[in-house]
């Protein structure tokens, strides 16, 4: 009676039958993909079908592969010397929702055009790119119906929306808003106001030095210059930090606005935000409510 032949060791001397824990799976797949990309031609591009096939080979459900693919943002934040403090100007919200992709895309485009006063500048493969409509009526409507303190979609420099099918009855929706203009204004305000306040504070310090010391002496001159420099530096730093904090708050509010839109879409409701409390009360009175 002969023994069955032992399986040959795989290349590289790996232990046959080695098991990988779930905690290591993500790291292994990421590293394997990194090595594959490095080995491939720089100009080589994978099709969606290739990506699904690779995912199937490593045991990943097609739905999860497609969702990961569609979550990648389309817009990119413009480079900025202050990006480390202010963060990206692009706000993204995405979700897998019930519904058919084409119908969902039409609802989103109609809402953005009629209620946020945007116009389409590009449309391809289930995705659209929109910018604020610049006609007179849209501009006036935006001012009176979309206060800048609460509505960010209407005033975003660019808005990208995409709806892609995941499987039967499921669609992945991604909405992005580029707040680049708001970030630029925040940076300018922080630098300008901070520098002005710092210059004033430094000037006061320099004036104090001039009153207690001989203004013509080298020591006094160095002290006054140092006071001005320190004041401007401190004011600039403080102004930029305050402006960055304010912009990050706007980013959070904008993300809430996008998530609210996805909430209404998920529940099958009208996409317009709920009316103001006073308007709801007025409607209730007209309908005979208490």
- Helix count? 9
Question: Quick check: average pLDDT?
Answer: 81
As a percent range, the share of strand residues is 5-15%
Number of strands: 5
Q: Structural class from helices and strands?
A: alpha+beta
Largest sheet geometry: 5 strands, antiparallel
**Rg calc:** 29 Å
The span between the termini is 92 Å
Instruction: State the share of residues found in helices, binned by percent.
Output: 40-55%
Q: Per the principal axes of the C-alpha atoms, what is the gross shape?
A: flat
* Low-pLDDT residue spans: 1-16
Spatial strand sequence of the major β-sheet: 1-5-4-3-2
How would you describe what is shown here?
With 290 residues, this protein is α+β, with helices and mostly antiparallel strands. It has a domain of 68 residues. The protein contains nine helices and five strands. The chain has a five-stranded antiparallel sheet with strand order 1-5-4-3-2. A hairpin with a 2-residue loop joins strand 2 and strand 3. Helix 7 runs antiparallel to helix 8. The longest helix has 50 residues. The N terminus is likely disordered.
Any descriptors?
single chain, 290 residues, alpha+beta, five-stranded antiparallel β-sheet, 14% strand, flat, disordered N terminus
